Predict the structure.
Amino acid sequence: METSAYAKTPVDRLTYSWRVRLRLMRRNFAYFLTELRRRPLALVGGIVVLAYLLAAVLAPHLTDHDPTAGNLRQRLLPPAWEDGGEAAYPLGTDDQGRDILTRIIFGARISLAVGLLSVGISVAAGTALGALAGYWRGLLDDVLSRFADLLLAFPFLIFAIGVMAFLGPGFLNLIAALTFKGWVEFFRLVRGEMMAEKTKEYVEAAKVVGQSHPSIIVAEILPNIIQSVFVLGTLRMGYMIIMEASLSFLGLGIQPPTPVWGSMVAAGRDYLLTAWWASTLPGIAILILVLSINVFGEGLRDILDPRLRIE
Amino acid sequence: MPGLDRVEYQPVDTPSPPLLELKDLVTVFPTRRGLVRAVDGMSFAMREGEKLGIVGESGSGKTVTLLSILRLVPHPGKIARGEVLFQGQNLVHKARAEMRKIRGKEIAMIFQDPLTTLNPVFTVGEQIRESMRIHNIVSSPDGCFSGLFRRGKRSAEYERVIRVMRDVGIPSPVTRARNYPHQFSGGMQQRAITAIALSCEPHLLLADEPTTALDVTIQAQIMDLLNKINREHGTSIILVTHNLGLVAEFCDTIIVMYAGWMMEKGTVDEVIEAPKHPYTQGLLRCLPHISEKQEKIYPIPGLVPDLAQLPPGCPFSPRCDQARPECREDRPIPLTELDGGRLVRCHLYVR
């Protein structure tokens, strides 16, 4: 039996047995890591996002304080490095005497959950509808595209404020408000790419081989498009987190006393001159997370596109 | 492919029932300026193992003829009339699902530009396997647990991928199967395309200008490969090209198309040695000969007509140096059969 010079495996092992699959996955992951190492910015971004994720998951184990119960005797304590700060409250306390670090850590849960869920639903809906509209065109495409144009005519924040005012505040309503418009971006991206890819010869070749339309859409064209969806997804995720923070800042998002960055910034605003930390530090938490997500997303795009790969 | 039972190769001169027969096929495209008949009244029959060449200028309906056979005429075009009989069955009225079973398995097609025909994000091996997977070519080996993770089937399919790749002359196929299309050279890409087409052992291979995008030495290799496939597996081949030299060397039979019309049909020797139709004569005069120093090449005057506004009568009449008054009359010109089964559509030969 012939062996490959590449991996010293006999031909029948070249097929995707679980062992080979595992090895391929490991090799792909190793490739991903080496490529990531060559892009220090993306690497740092990835590590920071990972840290936020870990903090969100492990939140109750990372701190002794209660994120919602305050102690009015300890209100507006400065961070530990300032005069009058206490080591028990590393980033100080807010106007109700709650530990700001604890609230930032718990706030990451909401922000990441909103970001992941709203982007996830938007990607799923936008990709599915965009693929159908771009492939089949016709009436379906006309209706969906006009609806998308209509949604795009509204500024996102104004639109979300309107929807939230209509639905009322709450976690699920927030997701609904964000995805109700969020899918449009993915719809337009996938529809456009689908229309471009559809005319390529490999699609014709797939038809000639006897593939059905659903199989061509899912198994031939979508893998060519999914890279850009992925990149747009990461970029939109940062945007969604900002949207959530903005809505919470305006009091339309998640309601107090649940720890959310947006409402923390809003609450600290009144004390900005005397206690700068109460609103600045949650703001910085948002900034670092969104920046890291964006930088990591840019790096992912460069790495994942197989057309840029040189082996 | 070796080790697989297939129809014995039939020498060209023994009579056998036609593998493919087109009867008065008309394929139309509705456009804003009127109905375009891209293929107008195409009729021919070909035997198993035959190599048929279709030549003509760009826009003469060669490719549309091939796509009509597969029922893949791009929207809004459609087959308006006629029959496509493949192994006795009329493909024009087949259900879509039935048609998908024929595409790739019974009739395969290879395209002009090999790189764009391959899907950039899958390895070449995966793409060759895809066609076998769709048509369930490789059956699962019997055995208790081999089918549990469909591993037995996968490895059988992959073994066959390697075999097909070796068959079409891709060196070190085990390594190359894992490469992506852009890592292949142009000639190797065309071989990979051919491997996909051959993976299910089709009876008929439609080759749409398979060598136009390649340089001359690679062209010769690919044509050798097609010849070998025809010889060893008895696969019938329709070669569509505008390269008359290629057809002269490769094909048994030749069809000359102009503006959707079949102008002339005959064996390659007859048509090349003694072209009957003025258009074929013109085409042959355009060819420079490598062996003799020719003083002048004689291009056919004028341009290919606009298919939406064809002149009445023979579409070639405005450019024809032997045109007569009846050529411009608005009535169909019958196909005239000359000795030896040659067909010509021209008033010069109507008795």
